[in-house]
Design brief:
Blueprint (H helix, E strand, L loop, with lengths): L1 E3 L2 E6 L2 E6 L10 H16 L5 E6 L3 E3 L4 H5 L11 H14 L5 E5 L2 E3 L1 H8 L2 E5 L3 E3 L2 H5 L7 H9 L1 H10 L3 E2 H6 L5 E3 L4 H13 L3 H14 L4 H28 L11
Parallel strand pairs: 3-4, 4-6, 5-7, 6-8, 7-9, 8-11
Antiparallel strand pairs: 1-2, 2-3, 9-10
Length: about 260
């Protein structure tokens, strides 16, 4: 395991785990933490053996959003220097979205503000039932939701719920988040690791290129006509069928797990 200040990075059985490691502040986001998150995802890019990434938090929280202590003590004109948010915070979110392998958020506690955005940015999000989600931006801080929250909320939960969450700042439980389509699943606290393990083991056996292409084609669907989406599907199939289809068919006929090629 490598400790890079506010991030812990480890790999086991082709699965990388990135742990936000500021437990005393519920893993609140600082520029250093977000830069380290970008650096950890760069390690994933470089290590072709990695097939899945898990993002989680240490201690009793997932991520409490931006570290407000530093913002509260800063001069208004210097609280967010030019480029800081884009370079570190948005850079980390782009790195998650562009990750060459599937990303899994293991939400072990509070996911607030930017932590909510971080959880939704991952491909699959699993939360302990004791966890909760809250968009603190507007009612508490007087700012627009960021870190992709305004992109993800209406797509996942619809406009009414997106506006309600953003304007009111109400907490929702992990089970509510599941029922609204904001996360994949809420599980009993004691089952969280087992469920994350089941998901990562399944994803690790899948073609990473297939996963990222499914992510891309799914996100494109909301902006495409039906006919355009059919054409886009075929663009991806033209790459994946020659690469994977024969092995998948043979594995099905032989009643075994397919052995798809790794990342190139």
């Amino acid at each position: 395991m490598t400790d890079t200040d506010s991030i812990l990075f480890s790999t086991q059985d082709n699965i990388a785990t990135i742990t936000l490691n500021r437990p005393d502040s519920l893993n609140a986001m600082t520029n250093s933490l977000m830069k380290n998150l970008v650096d950890a995802l760069a390690l994933v890019e470089q290590d072709k053996a990695i097939r899945v990434v898990v993002i989680t938090g240490s201690g009793r929280g997932f991520c409490a959003g931006a570290d407000l202590a530093g913002q509260a003590n800063a001069e208004p004109s210097t609280a967010v220097p030019d480029g800081q948010v884009d370079d570190n915070f948005n850079g980390a979110m782009r790195a998650i979205y562009d990750c060459p392998v599937p990303t899994v958020a293991r939400v072990n506690g509070a996911a607030a503000g930017g932590g909510f955005g971080l959880a939704m940015a991952c491909d699959i999000t699993v939360a302990a039932k004791s966890a909760f989600f809250v968009a603190t931006f507007g009612p508490r801080l007087g700012i627009v939701p960021d870190l992709g929250t305004t992109w993800n909320l209406p797509r996942k939960a619809g406009r009414a719920r997106a506006l309600g969450l953003s304007l009111l700042g109400d907490r929702i439980t992990a089970e509510q988040a599941e029922s609204w389509g904001l996360i994949w699943k809420a599980v009993a606290d004691e089952q969280l690791d087992a469920e994350v393990g089941r998901i990562t083991n399944s994803l690790a056996k899948t073609s990473a290129e297939t996963v990222t292409r499914i992510r891309s084609v799914t996100d494109a669907a909301l902006g495409n006509s039906f006919s355009d989406q059919l054409d886009l599907e075929m663009v991806h199939q033209a790459v994946l069928i020659p690469r994977n289809m024969q092995e998948g068919a043979m594995a099905f006929m032989e009643k075994r797990e397919p052995n798809f090629p790794g990342r190139e």
